[in-house]
C-alpha cells in the first residue's frame, strides 16, 4: 500500500508516517502544496492524506488540481477546524473523506482502509446480494438471512449491517457508522452505536455459536470473512 | 494635488454664502439690464409720439404753427422732460431752446447738448426731416435713466456686501456650533478609547439631528458593552469549565508519576487522562460549533430540508439507548414538513434536545418528538414528562455554560441547549420553553 501524506505540521506528519509504516504501508511524506501536487501526479498511490492548509499551494487547491488532472486516487482531507462550510467545500472539491484534528490514529487508519478499494472480498457494487460467510443481505428487498434462516431487522439495522458487510475485514468506527447510518456529523454523548450494535448482534447471533460482529477494542466494529 | 471642494463645516457654509452672493450679483445684473431697456424703450416711445404730433402740426398748419407749438410747450413748462429744436435748411436753429448742434436725421442714443443748469450732457434724440429742408429734433434727457441705473447698482452692491458679511458670520457661527457638538462626541470617543467604557455622548433636551446621532451612538455603545460583557462572561466560564478537567488530568498524571504502578496501572492512568482531554476537546468542539452557527454564515448553504425525516432519524437513533435507560421515545410527525435549513445542524439540534431530555429525566420518562405543520409555520416540539425547569430558570438554560444546580453532578458541559438556541436563531426560528405539565416542552417554531 503506497500512501502519500501531505502535512506541513512535522509532528502530525511523523505520527502518521510512523503509525502507517508500522501497519505495513509504504509512506511518502511531503510538507507543502507543490510537492504534494508533484508526487500525486508523478506516482501511483493507493490513497492520499491531504492537510487542508498547506504552504505555497493550499490543500484544497491541490485537491482540485489533482482531480482536474483526472487522478481518482482516494483522498482523505485533514482539517484543524470542524467548520460545516469547510466540510462541504472539502467534499465538493473531490475529497472522499474528511477528518477533523485532533483524531485518534485508529480512526484515521479505519477510514483509510475503507477508502482503499481492495479487490472485493465481499461483493461488487453491481451485485444485488452481499455475502459474508453465512450472512446474506438482499440489497433490493432489504432482507437478511444467516445460514439460510431469515432474520427480522429494522431498516436502519439493515443499513448498518450493509455498511459492515460492504467493508468486511475493515474496521468501521463509531463516527463512521454515525455518519453513514444516521448522517450525524456530530458526536452525540449517548452511546447510540453501541446500543444498536448490541441489538443487531443479539438478533444475528440468536441460535448461532459464532459472533457475527466483532468489536475491535478502542477502534470499532468489523465483520470478518473468515 | 487635485483641487477639491471644502469639506469642513466652515468651508461649506462659506461656499454656500459665496454662491448666494454670486446669485445676488447675477440677479442685480438682470434687474439692471431689464429695467434699463424698459426705460429706454419708454423714452423712445415718448420721443416718437411727440415727434409724430409735432409733424402733424407742421403738415397741417405749416412750420410757423410748429414753431409756435414748440414755444408754447417750452413756455408752459409742459415739456414733460423733452427738449425741442427746429433747424432751417441752412442749419440755423429757428425754434426751440434745446442747445445742440444739428444732428443727422434719425435716432441718436447719446446726443451731446448743453444744459443750462448742469452743463455738458447727453440726450436721447430723434431728428426728423420736414418739408423745405427743415429738421425737427425732439430730445429727451437721459438723467432719469441714469439715476435709476445708479440706484439699482447701489442697492445690489449693498446687498452683495451684506450677503458676504452675513455669509461669513453664519459660516463662522455654524462651524463653531457644529465643531463644538462634534467635539463633545469626539471627547466621549477618546475617553472610551482610553478605557472608560461607561462614557456616553451628552444628550440634548430638544430633539435634533445631533441628538439623534448621539442617541444612535449611545445605543451602539450599549450593544458593544453588552457584547464585551458577554465575551468577558464566556471567557470566565470557559476558563472555569476547562479548569476542572485540566486539573483532574494534571492530578491523574502526577499521581501516576509519583506512584510505582504496573503496566496496567499506568495504562489505566493514561486512559483516564485521555478521557479528560476528550472532555476538554468536546467543550472546544461545542464552543466552535456555537460560534460558527452564530456568525450565520451557515445560512448561505441552506437548502430545503424535510424536518419530519430529520426527526424520524433522530428518534430512531436514540430510541434503543433511551429504552436501555428506561426512557420511552415517542414520535409523532406530520409528513413532509419542509423548511429551509442545514440538515446536519437541524439533526444536531433535535439530537441535543432529545439528549438533554434523556440526561435530565429519571427512568420511566416519556420523550415525545413532534413535527407539526401549521398554516404559516412548522414546529419541532420535544416534550418530556420529567421534572421540568422552573419558569424563572427557563431563559437562563439557553445561555452558554449554564447548568442548573441539580444537574451539576451529571456529565455535560452546559452547551447543548445554547447550541440548540444558536441553531434555531440561525434558522430564523423562535425557541420557547414551557411547562409540559409535568415536564419540559421545547417548541422551535420555524415561520414559513
The CATH topology of the largest domain in chain B is: Heat Shock Protein 90
Let me know the number of strands of chain A: 12
Overall average pLDDT of chain B: 85
Give the SSE order of chain B as H and E letters.
HEEEEEHHHEHEEHEEHHEE
Shape call of chain A: elongated
Average pLDDT for all residues of chain A: 88
The coarse silhouette of chain B is rod-shaped
InterPro entries (chain B): HAMP_dom, HATPase_C_sf, HATPase_dom, His_kinase_dom, HisK_dim/P_dom, HisK_dim/P_sf, TCS_sensor_his_kinase
Subcellular location (chain B): Membrane
Protein name (chain B): histidine kinase
Catalytic activity (chain B): ATP + protein L-histidine = ADP + protein N-phospho-L-histidine
Would you kindly provide a written description of the structure presented here, covering whatever features stand out?
Chain A has eight helices and twelve strands. Chain A is of the alpha/beta class and 226 residues long. Chain A has two domains: 2-115, 3-Layer(aba) Sandwich (Rossmann fold); 129-222, Arc Repressor Mutant, subunit A, CATH 1.10.10. Chain A has a five-stranded parallel sheet, sandwiched between helices. In chain A, helix 2 packs parallel to helix 3. In chain A, 34% of the residues are buried. Mean pLDDT of chain A is 88; it is low at 119-123. The mean pLDDT of chain B is 85. The radius of gyration of chain B is 50 Å and the shape is rod-shaped. Chain B is of the alpha+beta class and 448 residues long. Chain B is built from eight helices and twelve strands.
Amino acid at each position: 500500500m503506497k500512501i502519500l501524506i501531505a502535512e506541513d505540521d512535522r509532528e502530525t506528519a511523523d505520527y502518521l508516517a510512523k503509525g502507517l509504516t508500522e501497519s505495513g504501508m509504504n509512506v511518502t511524506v511531503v510538507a507543502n502544496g507543490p510537492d504534494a501536487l508533484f508526487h500525486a501526479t508523478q506516482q501511483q498511490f493507493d490513497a492520499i492524506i491531504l492537510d487542508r492548509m498547506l504552504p505555497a499551494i493550499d490543500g484544497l487547491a491541490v485537491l482540485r488540481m489533482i482531480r482536474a488532472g483526472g487522478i481518482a486516487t482516494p483522498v482523505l482531507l485533514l482539517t484543524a477546524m470542524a467548520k460545516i462550510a469547510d466540510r462541504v467545500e472539502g467534499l465538493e472539491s473531490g475529497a472522499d473523506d474528511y477528518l477533523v484534528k485532533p483524531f485518534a490514529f485508529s480512526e484515521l487508519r479505519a477510514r483509510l482502509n475503507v477508502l482503499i478499494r481492495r479487490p472485493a472480498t465481499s461483493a461488487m457494487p453491481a451485485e444485488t446480494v452481499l455475502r459474508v460467510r453465512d450472512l446474506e443481505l438482499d440489497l433490493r428487498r432489504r432482507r437478511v438471512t444467516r445460514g439460510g434462516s431469515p432474520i427480522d431487522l429494522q431498516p436502519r439495522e439493515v443499513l448498518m449491517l450493509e455498511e459492515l458487510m460492504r467493508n468486511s475485514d475493515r474496521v468501521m468506527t463509531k463516527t463512521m457508522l454515525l455518519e453513514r447510518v444516521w448522517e450525524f456529523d456530530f458526536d452525540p454523548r449517548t452511546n447510540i452505536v453501541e446500543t444498536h450494535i448490541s441489538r443487531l448482534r443479539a438478533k444475528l447471533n440468536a441460535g448461532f455459536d459464532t459472533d457475527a460482529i466483532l468489536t475491535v477494542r478502542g477502534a470499532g466494529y468489523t465483520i470478518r470473512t473468515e | 494635488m487635485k483641487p477639491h471642494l471644502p469639506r469642513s463645516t466652515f468651508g461649506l457654509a462659506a461656499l454656500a454664502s459665496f454662491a448666494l452672493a454670486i446669485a445676488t450679483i447675477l440677479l442685480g445684473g438682470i434687474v439692471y439690464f431689464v429695467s434699463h431697456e424698459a426705460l429706454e424703450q419708454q423714452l423712445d416711445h415718448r420721443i416718437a409720439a411727440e415727434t409724430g404730433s409735432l409733424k402733424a402740426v407742421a403738415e397741417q398748419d405749416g412750420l410757423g404753427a410748429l414753431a409756435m407749438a414748440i414755444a408754447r410747450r417750452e413756455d408752459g413748462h409742459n415739456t414733460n422732460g423733452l427738449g425741442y429744436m427746429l433747424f432751417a435748411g441752412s442749419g440755423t436753429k429757428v425754434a426751440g431752446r434745446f442747445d445742440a448742434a444739428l444732428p443727422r436725421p434719425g435716432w441718436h442714443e447719446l446726443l451731446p447738448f448743453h444744459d443750462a443748469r448742469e452743463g455738458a450732457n447727453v440726450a436721447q434724440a430723434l431728428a426728423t426731416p420736414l418739408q423745405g429742408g427743415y429738421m425737427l429734433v425732439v430730445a429727451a434727457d437721459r438723467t432719469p435713466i441714469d439715476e435709476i441705473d445708479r440706484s439699482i447698482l447701489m442697492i445690489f452692491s449693498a446687498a452683495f456686501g451684506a450677503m458676504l458679511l452675513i455669509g461669513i458670520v453664519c459660516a463662522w457661527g455654524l462651524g463653531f456650533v457644529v465643531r463644538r457638538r462634534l467635539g463633545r462626541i469626539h471627547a466621549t470617543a477618546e475617553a472610551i478609547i482610553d478605557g472608560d467604557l461607561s462614557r456616553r455622548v451628552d444628550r440634548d433636551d430638544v430633539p435634533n439631528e445631533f441628538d439623534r446621532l448621539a442617541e444612535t451612538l449611545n445605543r451602539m455603545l450599549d450593544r458593544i458593552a453588552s457584547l464585551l460583557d458577554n465575551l468577558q462572561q464566556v471567557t470566565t466560564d470557559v476558563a472555569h469549565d476547562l479548569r476542572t478537567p485540566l486539573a483532574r488530568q494534571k492530578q491523574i498524571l502526577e499521581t501516576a508519576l509519583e506512584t510505582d504502578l504496573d503496566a496496567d496501572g499506568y495504562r489505566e492512568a493514561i486512559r483516564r487522562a485521555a478521557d479528560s482531554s476528550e472532555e476538554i476537546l468536546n467543550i472546544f468542539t461545542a464552543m466552535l460549533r456555537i460560534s460558527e452557527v452564530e456568525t450565520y454564515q451557515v445560512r448561505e448553504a441552506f437548502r430545503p430540508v424535510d424536518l419530519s425525516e430529520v426527526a424520524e432519524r433522530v428518534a430512531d437513533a436514540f430510541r434503543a439507548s433511551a429504552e436501555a435507560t428506561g426512557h420511552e421515545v415517542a414520535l409523532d410527525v406530520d409528513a413532509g414538513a419542509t423548511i429551509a435549513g442545514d440538515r446536519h445542524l437541524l439533526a444536531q439540534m433535535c439530537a441535543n434536545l432529545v439528549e438533554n431530555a434523556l440526561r435530565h429525566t429519571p427512568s420511566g420518562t416519556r420523550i415525545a418528538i413532534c413535527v407539526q405543520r401549521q398554516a404559516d409555520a412548522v414546529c419541532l416540539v420535544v416534550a418530556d414528562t420529567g421534572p421540568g425547569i422552573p419558569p424563572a430558570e427557563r431563559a437562563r438554560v439557553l445561555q452558554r455554560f449554564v447548568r442548573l444546580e441539580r444537574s451539576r453532578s451529571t456529565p455535560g458541559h452546559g452547551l447543548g441547549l445554547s447550541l440548540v438556541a444558536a441553531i434555531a436563531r440561525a434558522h430564523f426560528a423562535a425557541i420557547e420553553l414551557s411547562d409540559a405539565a409535568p415536564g419540559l416542552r421545547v417548541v422551535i417554531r420555524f415561520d414559513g
